[in-house]
Amino acid sequence: MTNSEFQAVVLAAGRGTRLPEVLGDASKCLLPVGPYPLLWYPLNLLQQHNFSEVIVVVLEQEKLEIQLAMENTPLKLKLDYATIPSDSDFGTADSLRHIYDKIHSDFLVLSCDLVSNVSLYPLINKFREHHASLALLLFPSGFESDVVMPGPKSKHKPERDVIGIHSATQRLAFLSAASDCEETLNIQRHLLKNRGRLDVYSRLLDAHVYVLKKWVIDYLHRKENISTFKGEFLPHLIKKQHAKRPPKTVQDTTSEVGVVTKNEDNVLHYVPHTILDQKITQTSLFNQSLSQTPYHGDVVRCYAIQAPKEAIGVRVNNTLSFLAINRKLASIWNDLCGETHPLISPGALVKSTQTKEIIAADNAKLSEKTSLNFSVFGPNCIINPKNIVANSIIMSNAVVEEGCNIDNCIIGHRAQVKSGSVLKNCIIGPNYVVEEGTHSQAVHLSNADQYMEIDIQ
Questions:
Q1: pLDDT digits (tens, 9 = 90+) for 273-323
Q2: Measuring CA to CA, which residue among 366, 367, 368, 371 is closest to residue 354?
Q3: Which of 69, 48, 182 is nearest to 120 (CA)?
Q4: CA 314, 204, 120: angle at the middle one, nearest 5?
Q5: 97-131, pLDDT tens digit by residue?
């Protein structure tokens, strides 16, 4: 695959609203997942598929920090950072409209929270084979189902989608959030007529990996009232599959003053459909029917590809999935990234001689006289001597002073655990200071409940 055929876009301007326990004021795309920031994983996936350039959409105020973090990873990609205003309330569709001028060909869109080793070639080949408008990737859900969150007991309710797929053709019939459905699911008759069996899934995960025609972003650019891609635009585009052209192509009309006007709100206005396109569709090998109109006359076509069951696929978009990927990373690392990327960064300073299955990011400082087991240490964190850390995540810039015992905990970004503390099954929020000698179990300690002090002159 070459960049001349497809461009690649990674959306990394999300604010991580589903990660309040661990994120604080840090950038979501820089969350530590093993030895690298979260954003590294979709970029590395694209690099493995021979992309050499990627457009990365980030918040303006986070660009420099993200750029420096990516320069400290072994990526060889040329990254074009497209910034959106930090004070904006952009959704994912808004972000794509913002980079409209940068898209010149068919393109892939990936979310920055994707961690996967799946091959993208079956998805891309399906897109090519059927001259599709869109093709998306689906994972089996449940990657984090066997992981228990530390902190107070709570029941995690995973977000689910209801997805309809025609099994014979892999055409995508509908996609909506399960929370938007009533107790019964009403399926329109035209989804079954002449299109064969329809399978409905509720335990597949939208990987947020999309292959799109260039004309799709042209159409999206026009639909300024749509803010989110997955929640609004994707269902809208799927429904447009049933839009039909009139028997004869309707030419653009001319107004009374001689100005050419176009029906720019009609999706069919954007779909290339020349006489040559029609002949290619009728005669190509991918036309699966010789006895009826190809694709039942649909010129907008959306497809869904399910990743193999053995593939690794998780979206790190909430605290439980963040915990799960870090807990399981050591055991799946070679399958995910191969042996060329070490679990202990060359820039980490590890003086401890009592370690077992640890992961350390760049500039993590792990002192001597420590026992460190089955844990992940983020960039720039400091573990002082005489500490025991097991089954825990110590996030970026966190500090653990001497004489602490930490078991099955998440220590947040820039948090500080003072001397003599014993923590078990706890979540320590970003920037929180655990006072000296604290003994806590199964609690969530954060600054969220504190009042903001305002100095009025």
A1: 666 666 666 666 555 555 566 777 788 999 999 999 999 999 999 999 999
A2: 371
A3: 48
A4: 60
A5: 999 999 999 999 999 999 999 999 999 999 999 99
Tens-place pLDDT, residues 417-430: 999 999 999 999 99
Report which residue type is found at 5.
E
Closest by CA to 421, choosing from 31, 377, 432, 365, is 432
3 state SS for the chain: CCCCCEEEEEECCCCCCCCCCCCCCCCHHHCEECCEECCHHHHHHHHHCCCCEEEEEEEHHHHHHHHHHHHCCCCCCEEEEEEECCCCCCCHHHHHHHCHHHCCCEEEEEECCEEECCCCHHHHHHHHHCCCCEEEEEEECCCCCCCCCCCCCCCCCCCCEEEEEECCCCEEEEEEEHHHCCCCCCCCHHHCCCCCCEEEECCEEEEEEEEECHHHHHHHHHCCCCCCHHHHHHHHHHHHHHCCCCCCCCCCEECCCCCEECCCCCHHHCCCCCHHHHHHHHHCCCCCCCCCCHHHHCCCCEEEEECCCCCCEEECCCHHHHHHHHHHHHHHHHHHHCCCCCCECCCCEECCCEEECCEECCCCEECCCCEEECCEECCCCEECCCCEEECCEECCCCEECCCCEEECCEECCCCEECCCCEEECCEECCCCEECCCCEEECCEECCCCCCCCCCCC
Q: How far apart are CA 200 and CA 169, in angstroms?
A: 14
Alpha carbon distance 333, 346 (integer Å): 17
Report the C-alpha gap between 156 and 452 in whole angstroms.
Answer: 30
Q: Nearest-CA neighbor of 111 among 17, 63, 39, 211?
A: 39
Q: Tens digit of pLDDT for each residue in 146-159?
A: 898 999 987 777 77
Query: Per-residue pLDDT averaged across 25-31, rounded?
Result: 89
pLDDT at residue 18, rounded to an integer = 82
Instruction: Measure the CA–CA gap between 156 and 189, rounded to whole angstroms.
Output: 35
Residue 252 has pLDDT above 60, yes or no: no
Vertex 60 angle, CA 56 and 61, to 5°: 125
Burial class for 380, CB neighbours closer than 10 Å (0-12, 13-18, 19+): middle
What was the pLDDT predicted at 278?
A: 65
